[in-house]
Structures are given as structure tokens and as C-alpha cells.
Design brief:
There is one protein chain. The chain is an alpha+beta fold. It has two helices and five strands. The protein is 16% helix and 23% strand. A hairpin with a 5-residue loop joins strand 3 and strand 4.
């Protein structure tokens, strides 16, 4: 199961590979965020800047794409 080593978050991870869809103050901070079950399987993704093809690749290889904790911003993710 993926987990942030800094804050312990194991619910959602973000990808630093995709910028947010907009640079405005109200834009989400990440272009792609995924939610995970306790067993580590990916349940849902929010695409706010990634294409559907990029999202599909991230779904197939989450360890490569989801490298940031959206809670604390750390890039110290344990898989």
C-alpha cells in the first residue's frame, strides 16, 4: 500500500509529472490525483491537467507516476 513517510497519508497521492490545468488561485494544485484502498489498489483518479491517455498510463503504472503526497507535499512515498 502506498504511504507518505512524512505524514502517514495512505489515502491519496498526486503526480508531480502533470501541472495543474490552470495557474489561477482557485486551481487544484496537482494535475493528477489518485485515491487508494487499504490494500493499495487504485480506486479513483482526478484528472485536472493530465490527458486521458496520461491518466491511463498512470493507472497502469502508479508507482512511477504518483510520487507526491497532496496532504503535506512530501515526495517521500513508500510503495
Amino acid at each position: 500500500m502506498p504511504r507518505c513517510r512524512r505524514c502517514g497519508n495512505d489515502n491519496s497521492l498526486a503526480s508531480s509529472l502533470f501541472p495543474p490545468a490552470s495557474d489561477t488561485a482557485n486551481a487544484p494544485p496537482y494535475g493528477l490525483v489518485a485515491n487508494f484502498k487499504k490494500d493499495g489498489s487504485l480506486t479513483t483518479m482526478e484528472c485536472q491537467g493530465a490527458s486521458l491517455d496520461d491518466a491511463q498510463e498512470a493507472y497502469e503504472d502508479p508507482e512511477h507516476y504518483f510520487d507526491t503526497c497532496p496532504v503535506c507535499g512530501a515526495k517521500d512515498i513508500e510503495w
